[in-house]
Amino acid sequence: MTAPLMQTLAPLDAMAPLAQTLADIWVYLSATPLLGLTATLLAYQLAHAVYRASGFNPLANPVAGAVLLLGTTLWATGTPYATYFEGAQFVHFLLGPATVALALPLYEQLPRLAALWLPMMGALVAGTLAAMGTAVGVGWALGATPATLASLAPKSVTTPVAMGIAEKMGGLPSLTAVLVVCTGVLGAATGRFLFDALRITQPEVRGFALGTAAHGIGTARAFQVSEEMGAFSGLAMGLSALFSALVLPWAAGALLRWLS
User: How much is the pTM?
Assistant: First the structure.
């Protein structure tokens, strides 16, 4: 081997131990349950930094950004989702306490809630049934299978309830979970523009509509706008989940039977 060629390959030989060390570190980390939690927190922090740099533009939704980063990382490293979720399930567990914590801003808005209960109930019923009807109708028009239609029906309900409803109707809970997240991200990203176009300015109306259509992700976006808007969005999310659990299996089931 000539001397110039040996000089060219020397840096590569020097990097080989480093590459092997990094590979060994990754093998160790990938078997550690806390990797999923760390990756989730880092992905969200990076996505939120982009969101902040954009001037909090709803199109740069941090949840969507974090999902994209995590999905790309899992795909690039060949990490199974089950392995990732062993650590990330702690974040999943915190969804419960976070939902319960919504009671505080709701309590602070109690006088206004009491004054608006009748129009809110009307909006809740109309919004929930409209979300179900349009999703199933569009899916049916595009030739979706009955299982897919059943998975589409609860796409505007918070994830745990939506998955239970879909399973009860013969749908695919995993597909429903994806649809719920997509619905929430889309609602949070486009809600402000839609409200502005329709000249809807009242924070309670904007919040309640966002919570009904875009559940938890929409509620998180509403709290970024104002606590009042977030309180009404959280109320809509909770009431929508309750109403959907009681009525949606019957209503969606009737619609699916009629379409078939």
Answer: 0.71
